[in-house]
Amino acid sequence: MSHDIEYSTADKKHALAYLGAGDLTDRQEDNLEVMRSIARGSQRGLDAQGIDWGVTVPDALEHLVAGRTDYSDAPYAGNAYTRALQIVISRTGSDPGQMGTYSAPSRFFSMMDEDMRRVGVPAHLLPHAALYGGPPIEFPLVPCPPDGYPAIGHLPLAHAKPAADAYRDALHRMDPEYQPDVQELIELLDNEHEEWEDATKRLDWYTADTLFFHLT
Prior knowledge:
The protein has 216 residues and is an alpha+beta fold. 50% of the residues lie in helices and 12% in strands. Helix 2 crosses helix 4 (77-91). The model has no long low-confidence stretch (mean pLDDT 95).
């Protein structure tokens, strides 16, 4: 089964504002209604396929918004909670970009990590760690999906340029199998760093600090 990887930038505080924080502004309430609509649409898609995660995506979203920690213990509840958290992050960030579709991304990027580690890329900049590391530590812990998907990853935007530079330095010493995908990662990170740096300088209201990855 293939898995899509999307990415977007966001201020993590904007997403956290919806996760058990209590009162929301009128604008945030409007955005929450959009999240609820997306969650219902996601659930309709699951229902049409006969997929039962033990808790619905709309209910999982309401649990997160209410700050509940008594999550459902259904075997696949982690899928619903992770999907709901993806919706919150997506609705508080930039329009998503498409990183790619992979038949076995965890295995592929894990092997890429090993090759990067071999040629000296620092552990905190390795791609698998960013893609599968979950949301930032400030976010609530949710049950893990049993098969690993959907998944959330992140990289601080301040690390985008160091990661791109490390990959660029390592590229010619890496296994040729990974070089095309590493080159794409370099271009993605360079672009995100340039946009972040430019927006931070020009726009007083711009506070994005995190590059989020969404795997489905």
